Every structure is written in C-alpha cells, then in structure tokens.
Amino acid sequence: MAVQTRDGTDQRFWNTSVSGDLAFLLARANSLSLAGANAALAQEGLKVRSYSVLALAASDERPTQRELSEFLRLDPSQIVALVDGLQRRGWVSREPDPQDRRVNVVVATDAGRAACERAHARVTEHQRGHFDMLTDDERALLTSLMRRLAGVAE
After folding, report:
1. What pLDDT digit, counting tens, does each position of 23-65 carry?
2. CA 89 from chain center: how many Å?
3. Cα separation of 27 and 33, whole Å?
4. Dihedral through CA 35, CA 40, CA 41, CA 43, nearest 10?
5. Residue 46: its pLDDT value, please?
6. Pairing mode, strands 100-108 and 92-97
C-alpha cells in the first residue's frame, strides 16, 4: 500500500527531484488553493478569476479593463468575458473614465458590492482551513514572500 500525503497524493512522487523545484511547488500549491477557493466561491456563482475582477471593481480604484488585464495577468479577451459575465448579473458596470472619456472603468454596483462581501467571507473561510497547518507568523511570512515574488515592493 502506498503512503499518501495530506492531500491524498502518493508519497513516492515526493522523493523525486521535482519535489524541490520551486516553480513546481508554487504551481502545485496554487492549483490546490485555487481548487478550494473555486469550490467555496461556487456558492456565489463565482470563480477566483471573476471574484478577483469583482473585488477590484468593488474597490475605490476604478480600474480600466486594460489595468485589470495587466494586474491579473490575463489576456484582455478574458477580462472582457469576465466583465461581461459580471455585468449580465448586474454586479458591475462600465463607466466613462472622467480622466479620459475614451476609456471605461469597471465599477461594482451595490448588488456587486454585496456579492463581493459574501464571496470575500467564503474565500476567507477557505483560506483559514487551507492554511491551517501554518502558524500566524508563517502565514504572515508566506504572504510577504508571495507579495515579493509577485513584484510588490514592501
């Protein structure tokens, strides 16, 4: 019988060279986290990508679709589809940017802000369980390291 890890994978694969590869570990950790977050968000009819767009639209930053694309590292066509889906649900609107009337910003509606709050609570609950093996200090360190890797100057 094969020894399994916490997530049910076969322990023998963790004895290979890939187990020390940071790119693999980041990708695997991301995949596990996304799967859990998507499951938590499904109750709101969202996935991580659409939630991310909604959360940014619900901020006071008033992002353009181009800014969303650049920040989320998604193709502009993916952003259009995500915004269209949120707009069909009445959760966001496209408004002219007062700084440049040729550009639209994406803004959450009141219903979108309420949906974002519910989704944020579900994501927070998921993260609490997903990262429960880490201490508070380890979570803070991981957050700091991930922000650095993501290119955020601290």
Report:
1. 999 999 999 999 999 999 999 999 999 999 999 999 989 999 9
2. 20
3. 10
4. 130
5. 98
6. antiparallel
Residue 121's φ and ψ, nearest 5 degrees, are -60, -40
Q: Indicate the helix (H) or strand (E) that contains 45.
A: none
68 exposure class (CB count in 10 Å sphere: 0-12, 13-18, 19+) = buried
So what's the pLDDT on residue 91?
A: 98
Single-letter amino acid, residue 67: E
pLDDT exceeds cutoff 90 at 99: no
Contacts of 25 (CB under 8 A, 6+ apart): 19
Contact 66, 82 (CB under 8 A): no
One DSSP character per residue, 87-146 reads: HHTTSEEEEEETTEEEEEEEEE-HHHHHHHHHHHHHHHHHHHHHTTTS-HHHHHHHHHHH
Q: How many CA atoms lie within 13 A of 147 on its CB side?
A: 9
Structure tokens at 3: 């020894």
Please state, in angstroms and rounded to a whole number, the distance separating the CA atoms of residues 125 and 148: 24
* Largest pairwise CA distance in the chain: 65
